[in-house]
Task: inverse folding
């Protein structure tokens, strides 16, 4: 497999999971600083111009929740998803869908506002609300969704690298992770894992 | 099961899928006009204050991609997801993740701008860009993702009710569905299915 990623982006979640399951893959960094995600070559791999993208034997995959479940299903011995328990799998999917459609989106209003508006005043108005929206998201994650010690409880799953990835964005979003003790402790617990240590060093997170 | 939904919202996708798989369920409409999604009773079911929510024997589920895959997995004879083919399932998940995290979000900037900004000028700036962003999303869906006659090709899957649901929002978003002939034809093809006819009549879509 070939893994296209960009530093510190959501691709950290898939990167950690590739390491956790012991996948055989090549790393290909995409340089957002030079807008490489908009190059003709990369758009041929992912027409959305986003990361991550995973080139597999069957074809190319994008979208974090899809890549994570794919890896869990290709490497069932990793135990990273409760594949044969529909309700447990749905709770895992519910968590990941909330991260991708609500939490990541709230964060993106600070750094990618031009996706949704064209004028500078509106972009500033979006940025101003990010501490509030991200704080509310993490309040919900902590109060209603996170079980501990891992996201889904005793079993380490694909939700954990995903939460870790986004929790590292909080400081930049103007929210103190320390205000969410179970998630702050989860972030530290993640850093003790060899797969996370390796990927965190690559990304500088 | 008990299905909580609101008219014309994204809950249409889960509603159709419940019908398609032949699930035994009760319908409970939530009145957005009276902000019932923010009532104490409903927040006890879904603390996010959103729809849909599905009460199952195992517990409560939210988030459309999670509910759709749960139904496909509980009713495997429906054939609505390629459960044992990791790559095919990942392509299905990729499609649904794009709908929930990018397309639905683009649409929400017209009708739910207060999620991300507080001032009226910024809300108007968001609304102004929706025809462009939704047009770009449907261009990508048509050009890169939709196979035909169904989303994933010959097999009708959980992607189909989801695409149908969002394609019905296009007109309100200032985009003409006719500009995307394969998806306009898909919308008509969907309306020939008894499950869709019944749910479309309930929602008035």
Result:
């Amino acid at each position: 497999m070939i893994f296209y990623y960009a530093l510190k982006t959501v691709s950290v979640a898939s990167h950690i999971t590739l390491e956790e399951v012991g996948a055989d893959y090549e790393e290909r960094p995409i340089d957002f600083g030079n807008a490489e995600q908009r190059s003709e070559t990369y758009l041929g791999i992912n027409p959305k111009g986003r990361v991550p993208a995973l080139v597999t034997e069957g074809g190319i995959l994008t979208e974090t929740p899809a890549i994570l479940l794919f890896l869990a299903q290709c490497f069932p011995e990793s135990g990273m998803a409760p594949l044969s328990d529909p309700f447990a799998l749905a709770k895992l999917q519910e968590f990941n869908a909330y991260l991708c459609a609500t939490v990541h989106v709230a964060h993106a209003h600070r750094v990618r506002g031009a996706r949704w508006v064209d004028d500078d005043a509106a972009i500033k108005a979006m940025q101003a609300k990010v501490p509030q929206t991200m704080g509310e998201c993490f309040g919900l994650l902590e109060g209603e969704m996170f079980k501990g010690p891992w996201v889904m409880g005793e079993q380490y799953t694909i939700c954990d690298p995903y939460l870790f990835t986004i929790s590292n964005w909080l400081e930049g979003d103007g929210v103190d992770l320390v205000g969410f003790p179970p998630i702050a402790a989860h972030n530290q617990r993640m850093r003790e894992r060899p797969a996370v240590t390796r990927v965190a060093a690559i990304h500088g997170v």
